[in-house]
């Protein structure tokens, strides 16, 4: 049972984390605790090195004696893991979500979850070695999976292309290996949460995050919190149907958005265009590598191949119309785009933005916008780490993590 002292510590840590930097007086005002309660508990946190002091800015003599409080960024790390269609990224963040380092490596889901988790564990160990100049004690792990997820149980549910992962205890296995809390969610949910929490303009608001990669998915943030839906499958827009299209999807349905406009779908379309129209620069890549890669489409774009430009514009319009319909329904403050397809650059993004706004007008406010994530490829690992940190902060377990370091 949590004592009143623990409740005070928990609330103080929550507020310092939320505000990033705060004075004792402001802590007292926001928490409702007396100055003496704040002083006693802050002194304890300072002694335990969980909290540190930083001087206020300014030159006034009285002001210079006052100090703000911050959480100690050098005390342990949080691991964020993002699994994609054919790769895995592992990153380490401090308590405020700053990325300290990361690595990625290829994976093949045919190998099964046990083998891939061994690869992930080895990757975490390698990452710790690169951060040897600071404390690398792991305080928590967040995992983003490219599938629907049972958040409470910490496993994937009926993943479309991950044999053996259905209800495989990802969270429990990582917890046994590293003896720390583990939180597992859909990868787009983690991206959306990271973007919403770390971007000041989105904190506490409604946000729609769209990942554009091999799969296409949406993460919904409602007043700063992830909306997962009744079965954990909210945001599964990659398998919403595009009217009039009969393209077969690997899920068994036809006309799914990702089967039309996902990364692999675009590579397949480009390959057909290369063969049908003898696009030399693409046919050469096919002959050399057996199939096209993203870099080949980028090369074709650089050389202004009109067929590839038109293919991407058509795909951007299809994506924009689908997302625009979601905007009408959800009414978010903004749409943020992430994922590998954003590498196609401003023309592709601008077409998506223009189509979304055209589709959703007049049901959006003048301050609505469509942006690309400011965190680039790292948003998946950062978001997964932030999911873990936020969960620990909300349920009070962060205090327990810190005490285990003593």
Overall description:
There is one protein chain. The chain has 406 residues and is an alpha/beta fold. The protein folds into 3 domains: 4-71, Arc Repressor Mutant, subunit A (Orthogonal Bundle); 77-194 and 379-403, ATPase, nucleotide binding domain (Nucleotidyltransferase, domain 5, 2-Layer Sandwich), CATH 3.30.420.40; 200-373, Nucleotidyltransferase, domain 5, CATH 3.30.420. The chain contains 15 helices and 14 strands. The chain has helices spanning 4-19, 24-31, 35-47, 61-65, 113-130, 170-178, 187-198, 257-261, 263-277, 280-289, 294-302, 306-330, 346-360, 379-395, 397-403; strands at residues 51-55, 67-71, 77-83, 87-93, 99-106, 138-145, 149-150, 155-156, 182-186, 207-212, 216-222, 225-227, 334-338, 369-372. The strands form 4 sheets. It has a 5-stranded mixed β-sheet with strand order 5-4-3-6-9, sandwiched between helices. α13 (346-360) links the parallel β13 and β14. α2 (24-31) packs across α3. The longest helix is centred in the C-terminal third of the chain and has 25 residues, at 306-330. The protein starts with a helix and ends with a helix. The model has no long low-confidence stretch (mean pLDDT 91).
* Major sheet characteristics: 5 strands, mixed
Q: So what's the CATH class of the largest domain?
A: Alpha Beta
Please compute the radius of gyration using only Cα atoms: 23 Å
* Large-scale geometry: globular
Strand content: 15-25%
Q: Structural class given helices, strands, pairing? A: alpha/beta
Number of helices: 15
Task: Provide the spatial order of strands within the biggest beta sheet.
Answer: 5-4-3-6-9
Which topology of the largest domain does CATH recognise? Nucleotidyltransferase, domain 5
Mean pLDDT score, rounded?
91
Within CATH, the superfamily of the largest domain carries the name ATPase, nucleotide binding domain
Question: Any idea how many domains?
Answer: 3
N-to-C CA distance: 21 Å
For the secondary structure, the number of strands is: 14
pLDDT < 50 stretches: none
The CATH level-2 architecture of the largest domain is identified as 2-Layer Sandwich
Q: Which range best describes the helical content: under 10%, 10-25%, 25-40%, 40-55%, 55-70% or over 70%?
A: 40-55%
- Written as H for each helix and E for each strand, in order along the chain, the element string is HHHEHEEEEHEEEHEHEEEHHHHHEHEHH
């Amino acid at each position: 049972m949590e004592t009143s002292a623990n409740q005070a510590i928990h609330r103080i840590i929550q507020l310092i984390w939320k505000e990033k930097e705060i004075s004792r007086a402001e802590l007292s005002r926001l928490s409702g605790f007396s100055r003496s309660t704040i002083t006693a508990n802050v002194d304890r946190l300072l002694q335990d090195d969980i909290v540190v002091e930083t001087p206020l800015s300014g030159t006034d003599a009285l002001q210079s004696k006052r100090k703000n409080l911050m959480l100690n960024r050098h005390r342990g790390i949080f691991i964020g893991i993002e699994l994609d269609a054919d790769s895995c990224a592992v990153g380490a963040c401090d308590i405020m979500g700053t990325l300290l380092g990361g690595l990625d490596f290829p994976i093949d889901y045919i190998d099964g979850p046990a083998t891939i988790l061994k690869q992930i564990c080895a990757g975490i160990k390698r990452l710790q070695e690169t951060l040897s100049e600071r404390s690398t004690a792991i305080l928590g792990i967040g995992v983003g999976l490219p599938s629907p997820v049972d958040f409470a149980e910490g496993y994937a549910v009926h993943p479309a292309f991950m044999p053996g992962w259905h209800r495989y205890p990802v969270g429990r296995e990582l917890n046994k290996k590293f003896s720390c809390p583990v939180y597992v969610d859909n990868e787009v949910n983690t991206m959306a949460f990271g973007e919403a929490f770390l971007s000041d303009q989105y904190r506490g608001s409604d946000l729609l995050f769209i990942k554009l990669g091999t799969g296409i998915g949406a993460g919904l943030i409602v007043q700063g919190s992830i909306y997962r839906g009744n079965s954990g499958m909210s945001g599964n827009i990659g398998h919403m149907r595009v009217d009039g299209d009969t393209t077969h999807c690997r899920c068994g349905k036809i006309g799914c958005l990702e089967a039309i406009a996902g990364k692999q779908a675009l590579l397949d379309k480009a390959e057909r265009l290369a063969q049908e129209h003898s696009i030399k620069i693409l046919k050469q890549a096919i002959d050399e590598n057996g199939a096209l890669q993203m870099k080949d489409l980028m090369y074709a774009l650089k050389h202004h191949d009109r067929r590839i430009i038109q293919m991407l514009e058509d795909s951007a319009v299809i994506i924009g119309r689908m997302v625009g319909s979601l905007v009408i329904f959800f009414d978010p403050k903004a749409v943020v785009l992430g994922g590998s397809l954003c590498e196609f650059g401003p023309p592709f993004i601008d077409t998506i933005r223009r189509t979304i706004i055209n589709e959703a007008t007049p049901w959006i406010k003048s301050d609505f916008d469509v942006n690309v994530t400011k965190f680039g490829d790292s948003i998946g690992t950062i978001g997964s780490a932030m999911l873990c940190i936020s969960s620990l902060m909300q349920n009070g377990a962060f205090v327990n993590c810190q005490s285990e370091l003593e």
